[in-house]
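seq/struct pair 1
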Amino acid sequence: MVAKSGGDWSGDAAQQARSLVLLLATLAATITYQAGLDPPGGVWPDNKNGHMAGDPILLTVNAGRYKAFYYCNSVAFVASLVAIILVQSKVMLETHVLEAAMVLDLFGLIGAYAAGSSRDLSTSIYAMALAGAVLVYVVIHVVFFTLNHGDPTPEEIKSVDKRRKRLLLFAVLAATITYQAGLTPPGGVRLQDDGSSGHQAGDPVLFYNFPRRYTAFFYCNSVSFMLSIALIILLVNPHLYRPAIRSYALAVCTGAGMFGLMGAYAAGSTQHLKTSIYIFVLGAVVLFVIAVLLLVFLDNRNANVTSQPRPENDDDEERKTKQAKRKYLMLLGILVASVTYQAGLDPPGGAWQHSGSGYDAGNPIMHDNQRHRYLAFFYSNSTSFVASIVVIIILLLEWKDGKRWSLKVMNTTIVLDLLALLVAYAAGSSRGWKTSVYVVALVIAVLAYVAVHIVLAISCCHSPREENSVDPARVAPAG
């Protein structure tokens, strides 16, 4: 946490500590609660062979692994609730009890993920080793790249703390969506044993039909999850995150985490290599569009440049406005990336449980029954996901920091991002084109309502009473 020397806590420091604990505890409580009620491997659909319908499949086929997942997940959940309840206690903050509880919480998440996302011991060990490898890399990077760095100035500390908030938002995003995706992989899990093929209930369907693709998804998703957990652990302590941010060690980890997310999405959202390549092509297209928008806004800015100096108060106000704009864009990007990642891995309509004539188990049902609607959903959802990831990366790197027109570019990209999200919703939430048209009509109706409200507000601001009012200063004195 952020503590002052001598153990005295200022109001700002205590508020920052409470905000951090609430953010992490809320994250952990949300994902562990869902994972506990919907355990990895699914549940039995019927009473048969000594098990009851509704019981976890993993408890029957691998009791030791299920118990490891259950207790690690429960420890993380209980620790989160305790931290949320006690976060208002100043004594808990000063003694760093809640900080220790949140670290225990994060290690519980690591154990639950390692036990629930795989079915063999070696893979679980590899997954847990990833977090340790990240921490070791950050330490080595900081040691070698901060040898010639002096003590940071107050301005540098303030800038680092701002960047830390953005990195923490990314880490929360990645940890939330990758934890859920790792425990409930794309394509679903088998609900019955298949003696002829050797497939066991509770195993991922994608693992048997497309083993290479599932392996690519698993490790990309695991890398992103472990990176995010390691980032959160480092971002808790200022003695760790300040040199790590100044040496760009956390920037490297963030970039690797972003590419891990894109790799997991490309491998898990489709079963065809060509379509996966299209996703990365979409990233290049989004960057091209952003470059074009930069040129357009830059030309407009150069055409409107004036030689009049700005007062310092206006500069301070503009700086605060741009900082609030960055937070707004970052939150929107995180929101869109979260929902599109989950929707891409778990598409509407579900996935086939068994292979048949013309389709394979694990493939999206909508892809075979309503191909055009699925393609409209998939490409719109993928465009929205890739665009949000690109915007998050640019905001984290503070690219073109201080330029108002660069924020306009990001804002335009987010608007296009939300439009793609709307198309994906219209295509994936219904099974008839008529219903999709209704969704578009609802958007038009909402925009019309907003337009009417704006017109009424403007008319009220320019009421006849204000127009007929006379300024006493402009009245000439008598005589």
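seq/struct pair 2
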Amino acid sequence: MGFFISKSLDQNMKKQQEFMLMNSRLQLERQILMQNQMRERQVAMQIAWSREFLKYYGAFFGIAAAGCIVGAMKKRKPQIFLPIVPLSIVLVYQLDLGYGTLATRMKAEAETILENESERLALPYGPPTFESIEKARRAQSTFFIEK
């Protein structure tokens, strides 16, 4: 009689373990998908910010360029055109980031770094461990006093 109960308990425990494994995999997949969606939203916000900034900067650049052209023609000094050079570099950068291929090139460069220069990505003291996190939590915790 005890053998049948033990066998039944073992089967139930095995089913429970399989369920827990499946559940943890499902939870991990959801976390990965959520983190990826958050990353995609952050990148989209960065590109949208760049496009919005470009509108204001483009207006500023147009006014500044027109002012430099008019000033250079009236005073007959070509040096007045010099501010257009750095301003145009910033304008081209913003255009490339907002509408060009800068994001794609940055992604390719990041992949190269991950593949060939992974030692540059190491954190000081290595990755966080459970012990280091728990030590910091205990130091900041005011709810529980552990001895």
